[in-house]
Amino acid sequence: MISMKRQVLVVLALAGIAALMLQGCGGSVKHSVIAGTVSDINRNVVIDATIMVDGDVTHYAKSLVSGAYRLEGIESGWRTIRASAMIKNETTGIDELWVGSTAVEVLKDEPTMNINIAVAHETDTTQIGGVVREAGTNDPIEGARVFLTTRLVSPPEDTSAYDGPYGSIVAITDGDGHYVMEDVPVGLGGIISASKVGFRNREYDITTTSDAMIQSFSLDESLDETPGDPYFEAIESYTMPDIITRSADQDAYRAIKAFTSERYRKAAASKKTVLTKSVPAGSLIEVDLYWNALDINDSRDIAGYGIYRTTDLDLDPKAIDFVRDPYADFYSDMGIEITPGTNYYYGISAVSTDFLLPGNESNPYAESVTSNFLSTKPLDQLRATSPSQDADVGQHPTFAWSSLSGADDYSVYLYDRFPSYPLDPGADYSGDPAGSIGLLPIWPTQADTGGSTTSGTSIQYPSNDVPTLQVGHKYYWVVLASKIYEEYNDGTPKRSAYSYGQIRSFTVR
């Protein structure tokens, strides 16, 4: 039994989450936005993929250099989202078709975010189907969600459950309790589970094969218990230059990010979702949340996670989204209202499968107390001043930029080619995180990774212990501003904010 104070807090919190859960139920058809990323099962981003809803060839989107996509004007209700991409085989040089799909419930008048699609070569996909029934009566269950995920349900002790923004592949059951999950990558090892409000999730270990597979479920009624509290691990905000939406080669920013961010490398260069949107400063901003939940909660009784945000902890935080995935541990907030210089506090709650009572009333015991809150203050857009684009410079140029309010340090990254990033979705870079960085900068060097960092607004290319800049050669540089609010004992940032300047080129004369 929870205390009266805790119960009041849960009732207040659940009211906001329940409203988000119920928006897709009943009423007239409305049009909404779907957004997410396209990657492979190794979490390598896929660029220029075509994303369609329910096979509508007249209404589609293309994934950006970050893997992000955005579809507008989508009718509310259950929809099938399919991604396809022509990807060059590095051995044969021939473009080959990669495909992936998932199901999503589109909410009325609300953006449906973080719908991440995993693709695989069309010959390396399979199909999973089955029936979901109620234990005891054997009656079919309509509207149950079936999830396939590679996340560890019980990670080793002292190991984060974080597995990056690659989410579950989802299917929904029809009136006879049948489901079909298509475009499933072959050789995928993980957990397949079925979930429905009022029932406990049923989970099975699975390794997908090239042959079509059958997996049915029998669900017991859920337990009337309050779920445990998730632990909010880390928060990062990224401000990108507005030029990122107009260049065909902005995967360069991911290469730089992979070199500078240990968290990014540990996630095997997982794809951060960046939408094409503007804020008053004219930049792109995303706030990434990482939490650890399944190592302290029974996933059989989790329906998903509530996302809370506020600019004032003295006020009740607002429920901004409900992630209907018991295996979720990542969320990227890309709200158009997010602006530089504002302190945003976030919290996470776990919601059980028994979140509704008869009559669609909120169950006050179904949501945990909100987790610890973490905050970040997005930085403004960073402006480089010199060398200017395509300038001619000497062999020891001075790099300069405008001071950015809130930033503690600035780092310059210099490349002898345009920064690149491994884009082969068939490659597995997870065994060697350094291999997922792509083209390394020539400065700072790997021996002195902080050698180009300063607290000032300029720094000169040194004459010792770095490669000599070659006359007539074109180089590329970018400056990164950073603010680390809080670190873990091992030095990993817990709360941080970053801003990237525009990538510029110069030639040594």
Short précis:
This protein is mainly β and 509 residues long. Helices cover 6% and strands 40% of the residues.
Task: Give the helices and strands, then pairings.
Blueprint: H1 4-22, E1 31-40, E2 50-53, E3 60-62, E4 68-75, E5 77-88, E6 95-106, E7 117-121, E8 125-134, E9 145-149, E10 169-172, E11 178-185, E12 189-195, E13 202-207, E14 213-214, E15 217-219, E16 231-240, H2 252-260, H3 262-266, E17 284-292, E18 302-310, E19 318-323, E20 330-333, E21 344-352, E22 356-357, E23 361-362, E24 374-376, E25 384-386, E26 391-393, E27 398-401, E28 409-415, E29 453-454, E30 458-460, E31 474-487, E32 493-500, E33 504-508
Parallel strand pairs: 1-7, 8-14, 8-15, 16-32, 26-33
Antiparallel strand pairs: 1-4, 2-3, 2-5, 5-6, 6-7, 8-11, 9-10, 9-12, 12-13, 16-17, 17-20, 18-19, 18-21, 21-24, 22-23, 25-27, 27-30, 28-29, 28-31, 31-32, 31-33
